Amino acid sequence: MANSYTYTDAFEELQIIVAEIETGKVNVDELSEKIKRASQLIAVCKTKLTATEAEVDKLLAELTEEPPQSDSATPEEG
Amino acid sequence: MPEVIESKTIFSLLEVTRSIQKTIADRYKNLYWIKAEMNKLNHYSHSGHCYPELVEKKDGKIVAEIRSILWKADFQRINQQFIKLLNEPLRDGITMLFQAGISYDPMYGLSLRIVDIDPTFVLGELEREKKESILKLQQEGIYDTNKKLPFPAVPKRLAIISVETSKGLSDFYKIINNNPWGYRFETTLYPALLQGDKSIPSIIKQLSLLAECTDKYDAVAIIRGGGGEVGLSSYNNYLLAKAIATFPLPVLTGIGHSTNETVSEMVAYKNAITPSELADFLIQKFHNFAIPLDQSQEKLIYFSKQHFLRERNAIAHSMQQISWSSKNKIASEKHGVLILTQRLQLFSDQFLREKQTSLEHLDRLVKLADPTQLLKRGFSITRMNGKIVTHISQLQIGDRIETIFIDGKITGTVTHKEGDHGQ
Asked: How many Å apart are CA B155 and CA B271, to the nearest integer?
């Protein structure tokens, strides 16, 4: 369920909830429900971010490792 | 002496011929300068004598013809003179001015005995022949034909008209085969005579053979050298020059002489003074092709290396950018989430606090409004017929009222009314 959310969707919804709470549009009955929803969304966003960050770091590390590999694989003349 | 038989004077053949001989000798005592065309030299190598056939032509037809004799000693002297002055030996087919005596021999008949030939006259004849050849080629519009042919970028396959033993040919081979740049030439020899009258049909024959297989060659080279300067007037021959001018491949000449350029050389695609110069010319053609090629190759290598370098730098740059901006993006998103979380906490707390406060306020109000609290403090509630009485104007003397206390109620009757203002 949480995985089917994109980061952008989750973040947008989170923003809306925060704005609603800030402007007092939420009534007390809904509040705990909203907070619950918001913490779910925050969890989704954080998970996505952490996963993305780990992946990006890994890819970047591969990128910086690649040139010396290709150099040794194709010996240049002279 | 003649015999007399039956009143007839009879001469022997020898007597007749001797008489003719004497008559002619008496009549033609001097030497005469005569102009005639020498149809054929008829040089007999074993005796060394020549028996030239002399003719005069009119409109291409022979109108006079006589045999002549040129003794060995005269021939040798005249020939030397010719070679010295004209670079040409005495040869057939030329109009000449010669000095001769007229003689008759009982054995050999009538003939002219040539004692001298004017080389300057022959020189003029040779020049005239050359000019005629040029003029004819020009009139036919073929003088420049060979020169106008496209020259192959790489003249690699050469048909060579020469003689195996020619010094010029071996010089030529030496240069083209040992060139330090490693240019490879493919040469095929078409042997031919290269000087004297016989060179004309000989070279023409090889050219016509070559004309059958022009696809096998890039150019034809006529190479001679080391053979001295003698006998080159054949290269002024119209037929030979025409064969060269109209040849479908470029003809190159390296005939090797220092005298005036011959017509064949003039009409050839390129005339090199010597076979060595011709070899240099061909190598230069290879240079003209190879040098820009080498330069292009270097440029290609240089520019492709540059290209790769540029792309590599661009990739490295993009990589840094990606690294930076993706990290940046993640950081800013993290921050965004953090901010939202904080706001959420803050505002939900605040929200709850507000609700709490208002509840407390309400509670207080509610508590303040609670009548039991008032009753406790000594207030009481008066009702009439179940309705709250708040003003005395609502009551009349004698009305029955009910007064409620904290712990119960009493019933009474209104007996007296007194307003706060003394009514």
From this structure: 15
Contact assessment for residue B38 and residue B92, using Cβ atoms and an 8 Å cutoff: yes
Q: Is the pTM of this model over 0.80?
A: no
Whether ipTM > 0.90 holds is: no
Shortest CA gap A32–chain B (Å): 9
In chain B, which residues have pLDDT < 50?
A: 423
Provide the pairing of β-strand B53-58 with B32-40. Answer: antiparallel
For residue B53, give the H/E element and its range.
strand B53-58
Cβ-Cβ contacts under 8 Å, B312 against chain A: 67
Q: Where are the domains of chain A?
A: 7-69
pLDDT value of position B68: 93
Are B175 and B283 in contact, with CB atoms under 8 Å apart? yes
Residue B384 near residue B400 (C-beta atoms within 8 A): yes
For A40, nearest residue in chain B (alpha carbons): B341
In B200-235, which positions are buried (b, 16+ CB within 10 angstroms) versus exposed (e)?
bebbbebbeebeeeeeebbbbbbbbbebeebbbbbb
Which residues of chain A are within 8 Å of residue B347 when distances are taken between CB atoms? 18, 21-22
Chain A: closest CA distance from residue B362 (Å) = 16
Number of cross-chain residue pairs from A and B with Cβ atoms under 8 Å apart: 57
When scoring A5, A49, A70, A77 by the number of chain B Cβ atoms within 10 A, the one with the most, hence best to mutate, is A49
B322 and A CB contact within 8 Å: yes
Coil, strand or helix: which one is B104? Answer: strand
Does residue B136 contact residue B241 with C-beta atoms inside 8 Å?
no
User: Residue A10's Cα: distance from chain center in Å?
Assistant: 9
Query: What domains sit in chain B, N to C, each tagged with a CATH number?
Result: 3-117 (2.40.50), 157-288 (3.40.50.280), 373-413 (no CATH)
Task: Determine contact: B19 vs chain A, CB below 8 A.
Answer: no
b or e along A34-62 (b: 16 or more beta carbons within 10 Å of the residue's beta carbon)? bbeebebbbebbbebbeeebeebeeebee
pLDDT for residue A25: 81
Residues in B touching A22 (Cβ below 8 Å): 343, 347
